[in-house]
Amino acid sequence: MPRFDTSAVHAGRDDFRDLCVHAPPLDLSTTYPVDDLATGTASFDALVAGEAEAGNPIYARLHNPTVARTERAIAELEGTAACVAFGSGMAALTAVLMERRQHGDHVLVV
User: Fold this and answer.
1) Are residues 39 and 56 in contact, defined by beta-carbon separation less than 8 angstroms?
2) How many CB atoms lie within 10 A of CB 94?
């Protein structure tokens, strides 16, 4: 097991050798090409089901490789199985509220 200071440098970079890069690539795309309907459908189903990865990212709001790399790095640093990154504090708060509510609950927010 690497030490924390080593993990802080290398976390989330396990695919760098396969990508032939030394710095994390920033994926700025919003949509991704899909080779065929079967691949697109399988990828969409996997992402909607909550899978962390799919054969094709399809759309950046469902999956973004840059955000996924950040989530893997934070999970490794925190010693947990997974991490979820949000675009804003309100998005994070909404996710927590929606997860914690039960059938019949009412949530009133400003």
Assistant:
1) yes
2) 14
